[in-house]
Amino acid sequence: MNDASPRKVLFSGIQPSGMLTLGHIAGALRNWVALQHQYECYFCVVDLHALTVRQVPANLRRWTLDCAAMYLAAGIEPAHATIFVQSHVPAHAELAWVLSTFTGFGEASRMTQFKEKSVQHADNVNVGLFAYPILMAADILLYQTELVPVGEDQKQHLELTRDLAQRFNNAYSPTFTVPEPYIPTYGARLMSLQDPRKKMSKSDPNHNATIFLVDDNDAIRRKIQRAVTDSGTTITYDPEHRPGISNLIEIYHLASGEPIEAIVERFRDASYAAFKAAVADALVAYLEPVRTRFQQIRSDEGSLAQLLVEGARRAARVAERTLRNVYRKVGLWRPQY
Ligand code: TYM
User: Fold this and answer.
1) Scanning 3, 48, 50, 177, which has the fewest C-beta atoms within 10 Å of its C-beta?
2) Confidence class for position 1, pLDDT limits 50, 70, 90
3) Which pLDDT score, from 0 to 100, does residue 183 have?
């Protein structure tokens, strides 16, 4: 962190709206860990985003700490990264307001995640759900972020973020860095174990569809054994035509680090049952240490809280600078800057 030239900034976040899943590791956490030494990193627990769906308050509070603990358990090193909770840094909500005045209604209406969630939560299609990607843009732009490691489902939100940054920069003068998404080649969209045409999700009502990072070894084995596969007998990687088996190959790759081609080569003639047993073994070996670390970290809430307080303080200093700059440029008056 004491390099002569400042490092480029990386920002990402996860909603604490449930227990984290293998999908969060695949699309986000493992890439955060891999990139953390090359960038100045901000990892945010985006609790304000979680409010767009009705939450049980006690659960939201618990999941916020669980989420931060899971960042650490997955391998984020607090010495290299600022870990904090979104609502502790008011600049996020404040910049989101300004950016909302630069976002077209039609532009926000085109977001596919909004369209999907409006169907999923038809009884509560609130304005926050609609404005959600604008808050995400504010998260990213406050820190002059260059790189945003996310899963495939966030790509469109990143495009909106880039458009907003460019629009603001053109309207005034260069203010925001225009960020790039970082989407992994494999694991960018881990699929449901029960319906491989659907994304693996923490809110899936069928718990067999999702591997949670706190699942015990028996649950992991059971879920992998019951995973829906495609008709056919060979182990081939073809996400379009063989989504079930391809998803298991990606999970094996994620857990073992072995290249996809090598996995396919080795298991080509194995039975589905034998391959599933190998996937379950690899996944148990991969997740067990994460779960143990999570339990250790979570059992010391005082240290975790302290880390988040310090993280918010550091983040707020950077975020405030950008927000002040934005307020000045758009013409908000203040006695002294
Ligand atoms: P969220 O909380 O839904 O998911 C967090 C991250 O995990 C990835 N992810 C997956 N990747 C692969 N396969 C899956 N099945 C899977 N499920 C989840 C997501 O793509 C995401 O990268 N809007 C964001 C949170 C956010 C954010 C930000 C992200 C708010 N502000 C700023 C980056 C930068 C979201 O809802 O992610």
Assistant:
1) 3
2) very low
3) 97
Q: Which amino acid is at 289?
A: P
Ligand 1: residues within 6 Å at CB? Answer: 11-15, 23-24, 26-28, 46, 49, 136, 139-140, 148, 150-151, 153-154, 188-190, 199-200
Task: Inform me whether the pLDDT recorded for 310 exceeds 80.
Answer: yes
In the chain, CATH 1.10.240.10 sits at 207-296
Instruction: Note whether 263 and 253 are within 8 A (CB).
Output: yes
- Name all contacts of 271-279 with Cβ < 8 Å and 24+ positions apart: 271/233, 272/229, 272/233, 272/235, 272/245, 275/235, 275/245, 275/248, 276/224, 276/225, 276/227, 276/248, 277/225, 278/252, 279/224, 279/248, 279/251, 279/252, 279/255
Report the CATH number of the 207-296 domain.
1.10.240.10
* pLDDT tens digit sequence for 4-18: 578 999 999 999 999
**Pick among 3.40.50.2000, 3.40.50.620, 3.30.565.10, 3.20.20.140: CATH of 9-182+300-330:** 3.40.50.620
- Angle at the Cα of 265 (from 263 to 270), degrees rounded to 5? 85
Nearest-atom index, ligand 1, CA of 199: 15
Instruction: List the residue whose alpha carbon is closest to atom 24 of ligand 1.
Output: 14
CATH 3.40.50.620 boundaries in the chain: 9-182+300-330
